[in-house]
Amino acid sequence: MAERARDDQGRALRIHQSLARQLGTAILSGEYRPGDVLGGEIEQSLALGVSRTPYREAIRILVAKGLLESRPKAGTHVTPRERWNLLDPEVLAWMFTGTPDPAFIRDLFELRGLLEPAAARLAAERRSPEQLSEMAAALAAMRDHGLATDEGRAADQRFHRAILAASGNLALASLASSVGAAVQWTTHFKQRASKRPRDPQPDHEAVYDAIAAADPGRADRAMTDLLRLAFEDTAAALP
After folding, report:
1. Helical ranges in the chain per DSSP H
2. CB-side exposure of 154: number of CA atoms within 13 Å?
3. What are the pLDDT digits (tens) for 179-231?
4. Minimal CA–CA distance to 147: which of 114, 176, 185?
5. 68 has which bridge partners?
6. Beta 68-71 vs 75-78: how paired, if at all?
7. What contacts 52, CB < 8 A, 6 or more positions away?
8. Running DSSP on this structure, what letter comes out for residue 75?
9. Phi-psi map region of 7: left, alpha, beta (phi>0 left; psi -120 to 50 alpha)
10. Do residues 55 and 40 touch, judged by C-beta distance below 8 A?
11. SS3 for 68?
């Protein structure tokens, strides 16, 4: 395995990180199914062309993310799907390496639909001038760079993170990494899969305008509309 393998954002990976990504993607894609037993450490490391140390480190990463369970004598096996930490930003990235599961796309947007309209409602009531400026700056960067670029997608993440922070609810704000990763990878997938993806900039502007106007009901509705349209765009991009 090449030592200079790279992740989906072009960053160099160490051997154990690259191996964890390879195995994690295989699990998420169904190549390995829940209950499947991986071979022994020596056998698997030889088959994958790596030494035992990076293989062992890769397994530890996947165990920590809930994808694998390793027990003495019982060996290492793939855990049931309900134990997978699907909101882990790295797991989300692996999920979108290929074509994501349509049921998971639905689940992801249903979860966002429970969280983000509530966060927008609270942000309309509680946002500070500084938080409003951060949202405006993120929108400007989205407009300048476009969502087909890494910079534009990073700005999209900033916008959604700023709303969670502006909610004034620490429990909601703690989900910023997961929500940000969901925003990043669904947007990246739509841009990759669609020849002429719809421009969601006006949807984001509507959310910002409602929060800036301190109108909680309008903010809730605007975010609900944004997520509905984003889900329809993502579903349309699936084969």
Report:
1. 15-28, 41-48, 52-64, 89-95, 102-126, 129-145, 150-166, 170-173, 176-193, 201-212, 216-237
2. 7
3. 999 999 999 888 887 778 899 999 999 999 999 999 999 999 999 999 999 99
4. 185
5. 78
6. antiparallel
7. 41, 42, 45
8. E
9. beta
10. no
11. strand
Q: Is the pLDDT of residue 5 over 90?
A: no
Give the span between the Cα atoms of 65 and 59, in whole angstroms. Answer: 10
Q: Which two tokens stand for residue 234?
A: 């993502």
Q: In 10 A of CB 74, how many CB atoms? A: 9
Pairing mode of beta strands 37-38, 68-71: unpaired
The per-residue pLDDT for range 99-111, each reduced to its tens digit, is 888 989 999 999 9
Could you tell me which residues come within 8 angstroms of residue 195 by beta carbon, excluding any fewer than 6 positions away? none
Task: Give dist(CA 104, CA 100) in Å, integer.
Answer: 7
β-pair partners for 6: 12
Whether 68 contacts 75, CB under 8 Å: no
Residue 5's CB is within 10 A of a number of other CB atoms, namely 15
The label of the residue with tokens 């699990």 reads 27
For 76, the 3-state DSSP assignment is strand
- The SS3 of residue 37 is strand
Q: Cα separation of 159 and 142, whole Å?
A: 9
Residue 94's CB: how many other CB atoms inside 10 A?
Answer: 25
